């Protein structure tokens, strides 16, 4: 059966994306191989390495046939490509990126960098215009294809494209879990859970005795963070907390048990610590 002349736009775009992904995979493998080499040497020869990779990709695909690797994966090929057009396709693919990388080196003059920026802007504008034309006419998504007059053709009889839904299902499941976590995690009271677990695991005997006024000296530590209390505060027992530690607990729950004596602390009893006159006189004597 003859091949169908119609090629969907999505297949042509996917073929170009696959070619780019194949190049990126090879480039990452080269970086992995040369990661133990001096970085300055590799960076100096990076434009040549990239050009060599693109040459090898072209040599084993378009040079010996009528299709790139991306087109082969989607059963496409160039119907009117010749040896001369194949070589020009390589030049259009390799030369601009090579010249850009070489001129972008620190040794380049400011005038060269200015010219490079202008040429890059013109190239991006041409790619954008070619994309608009491609969306209208449905062929030649790359500027090089338009300049050379080559277009993709289907290698087999046109039939509906097979779509694998396994990847789509995994992505939908993952995004659903992410939405669940981002919505549900802020609603979980971790302070209350932590205090409950610690209460169950602790074997210390809790006493209900509470002192009317807490005491604080140079050795006092916050029962929660075990550091010197910052902006000391208390809520009904003899122990002094950091203001932030105590306020954070009362923000999560209206009451909890002291981490040291087990006394029941309520948000309504939270006060800033002020030394009693007797304690202040002792500190002055010390």
Defining traits:
286 residues; three-stranded antiparallel β-sheet; elongated; two-stranded antiparallel sheet; mainly alpha
Report on the architecture of this protein.
α3 (46-59) packs antiparallel against α5 (83-103). The model is unreliable at 205-211 and 277-286 (pLDDT under 50). The longest helix has 28 residues, at 110-137. The protein is mainly α and 286 residues long. The chain has a 3-stranded antiparallel beta sheet with strand order 4-3-7, covered by helices on one side. The protein has a two-stranded antiparallel sheet with strand order 1-2. It has helices at residues 9-33, 39-44, 46-59, 69-73, 83-103, 110-137, 143-148, 165-184, 190-201, 243-252, 277-285, and strands spanning 76-78, 152-154, 232-234, 241-242, 255-257, 264-266, 271-272. A hairpin with a 6-residue loop joins β5 and β6 (264-266).
Compute the gyration radius: what is it? Answer: 35 Å
Shape: elongated
Q: Compute the average pLDDT.
A: 79
Estimated helix fraction: 40-55%
Distance separating the two termini: 104 Å
Our count of helices gives 11
The ordered H/E elements are HHHHEHHHEHHEEHEEEH
Strand content: 5-15%
Look at the helices and sheets and give the structural class.
mainly alpha
Order of strands, widest sheet? 4-3-7
């Amino acid at each position: 059966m003859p091949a169908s002349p119609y090629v969907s736009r999505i297949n042509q775009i996917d073929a170009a994306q696959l070619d780019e992904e194949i190049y990126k995979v090879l480039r990452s493998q080269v970086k992995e191989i040369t990661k133990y080499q001096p970085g300055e040497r590799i960076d100096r020869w990076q434009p040549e390495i990239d050009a060599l990779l693109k040459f090898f990709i072209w040599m084993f695909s378009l040079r010996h046939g009528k299709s790139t690797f991306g087109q082969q994966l989607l059963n496409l090929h160039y119907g009117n490509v010749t040896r001369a057009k194949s070589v020009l396709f390589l030049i259009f693919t390799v030369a601009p990126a090579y010249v850009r990388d070489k001129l972008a080196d620190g040794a380049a003059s400011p005038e060269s960098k200015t010219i490079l920026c202008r040429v890059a802007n013109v190239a991006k504008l041409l790619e954008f215009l070619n994309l608009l034309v491609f969306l209208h006419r449905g062929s030649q998504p790359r500027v090089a294809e338009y300049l050379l007059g080559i277009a993709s053709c289907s290698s087999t009889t046109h039939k509906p494209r097979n779509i694998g839904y396994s990847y789509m299902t995994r992505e939908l499941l993952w995004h659903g879990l992410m939405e669940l976590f981002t919505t549900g995690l802020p609603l979980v009271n971790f302070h209350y859970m932590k205090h409950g677990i610690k209460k169950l695991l602790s074997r210390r005997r809790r006493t209900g005795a509470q002192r009317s006024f807490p005491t604080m000296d140079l050795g006092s530590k916050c029962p929660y963070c075990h550091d010197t209390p910052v902006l000391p505060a208390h809520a009904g027992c003899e122990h002094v907390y950091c203001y932030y530690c105590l306020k954070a607990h009362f923000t999560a729950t209206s009451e909890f048990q002291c981490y040291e004596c087990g006394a029941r602390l309520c948000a309504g009893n939270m006060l800033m610590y002020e030394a009693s006159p007797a304690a202040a006189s002792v500190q002055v004597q010390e």
